[in-house]
Write the structure tokens for this entry.
Amino acid sequence: MDFTEKTIQRDIKYSGRIFTVTQDIVELPNGKTSTRDLVFHTGAVAVLVIRDGKMLLVRQYRKPLEMHFLEIPAGKLDGKEEVPLEAAKRELEEETNLVAEEWVKMMEMVSTPGFCDEKITLFQAKNVTV
């Protein structure tokens, strides 16, 4: 069965530098209508660094949960035009003061496709030095 939803109307609720929030009215496959709250994001990168058999993690404060987390280095793209590899290099250096000689694109993922289109590109940084 085709579960495609047709957008009938889109109302932009918020538009900022990182994301836009809309409320869409959609037509469902059965002909009924429903509402979808959606987030359109500029995108992000994440960097996997493994040195001496250990994964590099950074401590980050995350305001939505008001907690610190241990994460791999990561960050948002500075607009849709920024190349993910350049953003990954920038984030690694900003968050760890490290640079890598070799970069491998591992995958692209969408972590919350039910309401958000944020695509995260994961890179592995190799031969990392200060």
